[in-house]
């Protein structure tokens, strides 16, 4: 007993220190974290089955096969670094998904300089239970340190590959001959090659098979990263994302498929023909020469318009303004990962945001037919107002390309009423209107972006004027408070415009940029006092209000036909009598009278009759088609034609933006 116990202990230590055992432990721990991530996604119709786990292991092998070719301490250090890196990446994805319902991409990471500004928003997405995600590091880090720096383990090897072998009979390491060192080197090389080949077989193989069968076309036309994740798993998704970014941005840049270029040309030729018939309509050019003011409201959703709580209207000033304005009750935000910048891009450029990252950041130097550039050519002074850092979302560069005369950013405002990220919306509106009145030459176009209702909606007590009752102390209650505050600020802005004599000669628009990221269905059911289905939730999370006030208050009323952020630029041009025929826009003119479809970035669409909600697994047949007249599910093929049209539009927009085709088309003329 006295002799054999140390021998068993030594054998155990030797087994734990064996390269294969360390590699297996690394693989198991990362796989468990990938499984924990998936469990926290709660993604509809996406499971992490056995084959998905096999793909994850294959991806890990492809990511780490090279560690076998390092000396022992090098291998230990490499595995430890990989472990920390992947832990950070997977957890970052989990936190990012909680807010954006999407995964990190290279373009998003290039915007990481904005993370400091997100502050409280990020903190609110980190939960106490997340500790378990890092629990293994309490063992991994000390163990790796001992293996790397303990004299006992350092003395067990010389330079180069492993030069010692474990002698199980005596419980210690003994020297090996030069011949054995060469054999061990060959074994390590063979182990690395084996890991590489095995990774290709069980990781890349199934993904390739999927891409040729049920997920055919995914890598050619991916409009949502969650769909890609369903096929590839997280690690392969990031690998493909890096590959795509390098392909598109290194060297001579991407080259468009000639068939895709022809598809884009054909789409816009058809669109221009349909637009020509709209010039004879009554509102075309009726407000020629009017000022244009558009306000983009941060996280301003549609579900609370006209609602009250505790006997108070949540949006009393908006409600009052509706009486003399056009209110679009089914107006959709069409944003992607770029969120606020995507809303700006869609509204002012009338193209779909990208499936990954923000066009403001990725393609700020490309050619666009932006609303400010078009109006500038018509003699307008064009200005944009946002009381935050000018570099956020790469706005300073993008706004120069969009041909704004001046960008009034944080340094151009007096911070006399600090709130949240910067300046209160009340002060922001007051100072912006003052600048319009004193500095802008009429006719002018002014675009304003608010901030006070930004996540996590922490409004100071002295500005909380709404009794939210049972929602007090919750993020949902805080959100209602923030919206109520912004509504009051909006009312003050309208009064200021009237007092300065600007209101009667201005086309005024207000719309929400995106949802609040509060997705808890029970909260909305409690607030609205009724049960909700998936269609209700899809509309709640994607509808934002659009309010349009014309100079003479004409055409006031509620408009129920679907519309979206891409429709703003074509509609403004129509009112001003500026032909949209020669511009590369994808939105609808809401005054055109034609049937219109609104396509969301995730592949959802509505034409006013049907509403299609895609499945997270990217398969069309697994999505859901709703008949809006009955507000119930209908046969899936009822949405087939619309689905194909929506897919085409997203692909056309992505192709046009990615390959800078507007510039190419104009140069070819």
| Order of strands across the main sheet | 9-8-12-3-13-14-6-15
Largest sheet: 8 strands, mixed
SS element count, helices: 24
User: Low-confidence spans: pLDDT under 50, at least 5 residues?
Assistant: 1-5, 156-176
The total count of strands amounts to 21
Helix content: 40-55%
What structural category arises from helix and sheet content? Answer: alpha/beta
Mean pLDDT: 89
Evaluate the radius of gyration.
29 Å
Q: Sum up the overall morphology in one term.
A: globular
Oligomer: single chain
- As a percent range, the share of strand residues is 5-15%
**Ends: how far apart?**
92 Å
Characterize the structure shown.
Helices cover 48% and strands 11% of the residues. Mean pLDDT is 89; it is low at 1-5 and 156-176. A hairpin with a 5-residue loop joins strand 17 (598-599) and strand 18 (605-606). The protein is α/β, with parallel strands linked by helices and 669 residues long. Helix 3 (50-64) packs across helix 10.
């Amino acid at each position: 007993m006295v002799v054999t116990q140390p021998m068993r202990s030594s054998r155990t230590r030797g087994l734990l220190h064996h390269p294969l055992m360390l590699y297996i432990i690394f693989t198991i721990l990362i796989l468990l974290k990938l499984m924990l991530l998936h469990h926290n996604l709660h993604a509809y119709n996406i499971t992490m089955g056995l084959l998905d786990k096999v793909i994850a292991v294959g991806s890990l092998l492809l990511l780490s096969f090279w560690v076998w070719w390092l000396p022992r301490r090098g291998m230990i250090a490499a595995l430890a670094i990989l472990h920390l890196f992947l832990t950070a990446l997977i957890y970052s994805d989990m936190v990012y998904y909680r807010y954006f319902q999407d995964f990190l991409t290279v373009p998003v990471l290039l915007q990481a300089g904005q993370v400091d500004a997100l502050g409280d928003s990020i903190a609110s997405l980190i939960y106490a239970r997340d500790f378990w995600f890092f629990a293994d590091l309490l063992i991994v880090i000390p163990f790796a340190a001992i293996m790397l720096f303990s004299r006992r383990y350092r003395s067990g090897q010389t330079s180069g590959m492993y030069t010692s072998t474990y002698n199980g009979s005596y419980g210690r390491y003994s020297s090996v001959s030069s011949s054995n060192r060469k054999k061990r080197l060959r074994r390590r090389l063979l182990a690395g090659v084996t890991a590489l080949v095995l990774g290709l077989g069980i990781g890349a193989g199934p993904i390739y098979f999927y891409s040729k069968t049920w997920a055919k076309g995914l890598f050619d036309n991916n409009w949502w990263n969650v769909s890609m994740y369903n096929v590839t798993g997280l690690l392969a998704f990031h690998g493909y994302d890096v590959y795509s970014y390098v392909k598109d941005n290194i060297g001579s840049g991407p080259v468009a498929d000639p068939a895709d270029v022809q598809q884009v040309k054909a789409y816009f030729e058809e669109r221009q023909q349909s637009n020509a018939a709209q010039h004879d309509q009554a509102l075309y050019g009726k407000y020629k020469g009017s000022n244009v003011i558009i306000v983009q409201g941060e996280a301003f959703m549609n579900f609370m318009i006209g609602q009250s709580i505790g006997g108070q209207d949540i949006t009393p000033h908006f409600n009052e303004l509706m009486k003399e304005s056009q209110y679009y009750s089914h107006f959709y935000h069409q944003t992607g990962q770029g969120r606020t910048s995507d809303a700006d891009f869609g509204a002012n450029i009338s193209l779909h945001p990208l499936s990954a990252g923000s066009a403001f950041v990725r393609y700020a130097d490309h050619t666009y037919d932006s609303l400010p550039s078009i109006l500038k050519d018509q003699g307008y002074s064009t200005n944009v107002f946002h009381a935050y850092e000018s570099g956020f979302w790469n706005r300073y560069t993008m706004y120069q390309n969009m041909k704004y005369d001046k960008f009034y950013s944080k340094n151009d405002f007096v911070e006399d009423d600090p709130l949240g990220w910067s300046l209160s919306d009340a002060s922001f509106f007051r100072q912006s209107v003052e600048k319009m009145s004193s500095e802008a030459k009429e006719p002018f176009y002014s675009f304003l972006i608010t901030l006070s209702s930004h996540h996590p909606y922490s409004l100071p007590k002295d500005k909380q004027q709404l009794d939210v009752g049972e929602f007090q102390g919750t993020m949902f209650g805080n959100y209602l408070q923030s919206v109520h505050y912004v509504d009051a600020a909006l009312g003050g802005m309208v009064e200021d415009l009237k007092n300065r004599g600007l209101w009667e000669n201005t086309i005024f628009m207000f719309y929400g940029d995106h949802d609040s990221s509060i997705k808890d269905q029970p909260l909305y059911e409690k607030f609205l006092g009724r049960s909700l289905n998936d269609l209700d939730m899809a509309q709640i999370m994607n509808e934002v209000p659009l309010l349009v006030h014309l100079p003479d208050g004409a055409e006031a009323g509620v408009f129920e036909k679907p519309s979206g952020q891409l429709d703003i630029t074509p509609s403004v041009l129509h009112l001003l009598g500026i032909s949209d025929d020669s511009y590369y826009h994808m939105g609808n003119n809401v005054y055109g009278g034609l049937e219109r479809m609104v396509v969301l970035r995730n592949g959802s669409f509505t034409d006013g009759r049907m509403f299609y909600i895609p499945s997270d697994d990217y398969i069309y047949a697994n999505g859901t088609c709703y008949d809006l007249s009955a507000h119930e599910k209908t046969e899936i093929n009822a949405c087939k034609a619309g689905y194909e049209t929506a897919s085409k539009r997203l692909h056309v927009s992505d192709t046009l933006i990615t390959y800078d085709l507007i510039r190419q088309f104009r140069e070819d003329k």
